[in-house]
Design brief:
By secondary structure, the protein is mainly alpha-helical. It has a domain of 53 residues. The chain is 53% helix and 10% strand. A two-stranded antiparallel ribbon has the order 1-2. A two-stranded antiparallel sheet has the order 3-6. A hairpin with a 6-residue loop joins strand 1 and strand 2. Helix 2 runs antiparallel to helix 3. The longest helix has 56 residues. Bound molecules: zinc ion (2 copies). The site of one zinc ion has 5 residues, from loops.
Length: 224
C-alpha cells in the first residue's frame, strides 16, 4: 500500500488526493465525488434488480414451469392408460364376437340334430344327456367366457415412466442471507457443502398395461 507521500495522481486530472478502497484508483476531490456518484447510480441498479426479484417472488396467477411439466406428464400418462384400455376393450370385443359366432354355429348344429332325432324318434337318455351337457357348457361359455381373460402384460415393463421431485443442493441458495458473502466465505462454504440430492416424494406405483389374452384355444362343441 502506498503511503500518503507517494500518493498517485488522479486518473482524471493528475491531482490525486484520495484513493477509493473498492477499486483502488486515485482521485482528486471533484473526481472522487464523481466516482461516488457513479457508485450511487450502480447502487440504484442493484436496488432495481432487488425490487424486480421481490415482485417476482410474490404469488402470481401464472403457473410455475415445473408445475406445468407435471401437468403435461399427468395428461400424457392418462392418455396412455386410456389408449391401452381402449385397445383392450376393442380386442375383448373381437374375442367376444368370435366366441358368440362359434356358439351360434354350435347351437345350429345341435338344433339340426335335435330336429332330425325328434322326427325319427331314435334318441335315448344317452343322447338327451349329451345334448343337455353341451347346451349347459355353451351357456357357461356365453355367460363367463372362460376362454378369455384380461391379464397384466408382463412383456411390456411399462410405457409410463413415473416421475418424482428432486431437490438439488445449491451453494448459491445456501448462502442467501442478509449480508453478502465474501469471497473467502464463498470458498469455505462451497468446500463444506456436499453435492447430492434427495427424493422429495414418490408418485403412485407403476401401473402395468393390460392386454386381452386367450387362455386356451377356442372350444369346439360339435364337429359336423
Ligand atoms: Zn472506486
Ligand atoms: Zn481529478
Amino acid at each position: 500500500m502506498a503511503s500518503n507521500r507517494e500518493q498517485k495522481p488522479c486518473i482524471g486530472c493528475e491531482k490525486g488526493v484520495a484513493t477509493c478502497s473498492g477499486c483502488e484508483k486515485h482521485f482528486c476531490l471533484p473526481h472522487f465525488t464523481e466516482h461516488r456518484q457513479e457508485l450511487d447510480k450502480r447502487m440504484d441498479e442493484v436496488m432495481h434488480e432487488h425490487d424486480q426479484l421481490l415482485e417476482a417472488l410474490k404469488p402470481q396467477g401464472t403457473v410455475h414451469p415445473l408445475m406445468s411439466q407435471i401437468d403435461t406428464w399427468e395428461q400424457a400418462s392418462i392418455q396412455k392408460i386410456k389408449d391401452t384400455a381402449k385397445q383392450a376393450r376393442e380386442d375383448l370385443q373381437v374375442h367376444l364376437d368370435c366366441s358368440r359366432d362359434r356358439l351360434t354355429d354350435s347351437l345350429g348344429n345341435i338344433a339340426q340334430q335335435l330336429k332330425s332325432n325328434q322326427a325319427s324318434t331314435v334318441y335315448t337318455e344317452k343322447e338327451l344327456d349329451e345334448w343337455l351337457r353341451q347346451l349347459k357348457q355353451m351357456q357357461q361359455t356365453l355367460e363367463k367366457s372362460p376362454n378369455i381373460d384380461v391379464i397384466k402384460d408382463e412383456e411390456i415393463h411399462s410405457s409410463i415412466h413415473m416421475i418424482k421431485v428432486l431437490e438439488k443442493f445449491s451453494t448459491e441458495e445456501h448462502l442467501m442471507g442478509n449480508k453478502a458473502a465474501t469471497q473467502s466465505e464463498l470458498a469455505s462454504t462451497s468446500m463444506s457443502i456436499s453435492t447430492g440430492s434427495f427424493i422429495s416424494h414418490f408418485m403412485i406405483d407403476n401401473p402395468s398395461g393390460y392386454i386381452v389374452n386367450l387362455k386356451t384355444p377356442p372350444m369346439k362343441y360339435l364337429s359336423n
